[in-house]
Amino acid sequence: AESEAMAGAALAGRLWALLDEMAENDPRAYRRLLRQQSAEAERLRAPPEPHLCLRARPGAGRPLFINVCSWKRVPAPRAPAEPLPVRAGPLAAVSGEGDLYSIIDIAYNPDVLQRGEENPEKMEHLIHLTLRFVEERCKLTLSYSYTIEPFKLKGSLETMQQRLKGRQMPTPHFSQNTKKELTLDQLLHALEAEDCSNAPVLLKEESVTQSKAHLIEEITSTEMPEKLSTPVYEMITVKDANKKTLKIELKIELPKVSSVSECDLRISKDDIIIEVPEKYKLQLDLPELVDEETATAVFNKGKQVLFITVPVAKTDL
């Protein structure tokens, strides 16, 4: 077993060396490779979406709204008899327009919710499981009389997604249409690892008439958000003889990085985001709109510096 692990590590090392070489010598081919792998990765990176909102009736205290959401990152149950995976956000107290109420966000795989839409009995069963789960998780006593609200979501979409993801929202000036560029390391590993390290709760699929046994097998995560360092960088605008900007060059010093596979680079028309998990994060607004499709990035392993070149977007005259 040890020799197999060593062989696997050696093979992985050779693979990353080849990819590093491609990134340095043929950035366009490297970008093509990323794009080929990105379709499925983007699907898994899709954020949670609202599906329906329940108004529950606690035995005492403020009203409770349960946002039931659809999220592709939550796995579907492996079989009907297997526990039902669910991701839950924290119980949040809200004060707005003179009202006091609580909100909790619950996410299921889209297929689970689709089956509920097709079969009202299954949806009612899912709702009762959800209520029992919230009771146990939040130490509440709920009446099993509930209301499905006419709206799908209580509160804002961004706040719901923030609570379910369990990490801070991007700063407000980030572009809403940021085109994410994934590293191959993320495409092949990070999505799977994130689901394992931030694993969903498992609800046991029981009929509503069964005894109230423990419904939850919870897999906790010890992962805590860390404050990331801002790397040293230099931004240069390259202009022609008429002082018209042609391209933007960015030099980022990453002394703690040994491979380009550690970097998550996202370029949109008006900003650049570079993140190295547990090490660095940098977000820069660009002085000009750029053509993100033709951007290139090269990591110099010897100097541990990332060079990014982004042509300015052409304007129609």
UniProtKB/TrEMBL annotation:
Domain of life: Eukaryota
Pfam families the record matches: PIH1 (PF08190), PIH1_CS (PF18201)
UniProt domain PIH1D1/2/3 CS-like: residue ranges: 241-312
Residues annotated as domain PIH1 N-terminal: 46-164
GO CC term, one of those recorded: R2TP complex
Gene Ontology biological-process entries: box C/D snoRNP assembly; rRNA processing
InterPro entries attached to this UniProt entry: PIH1/Kintoun_subfamily, PIH1_N, PIH1D1/2/3_CS-like
Family: Belongs to the PIH1 family.
Protein name in the entry: PIH1 domain-containing protein 2
Taxonomic source organism: Strix occidentalis caurina (northern spotted owl)
Source species taxonomy: Eukaryota, Metazoa, Chordata, Craniata, Vertebrata
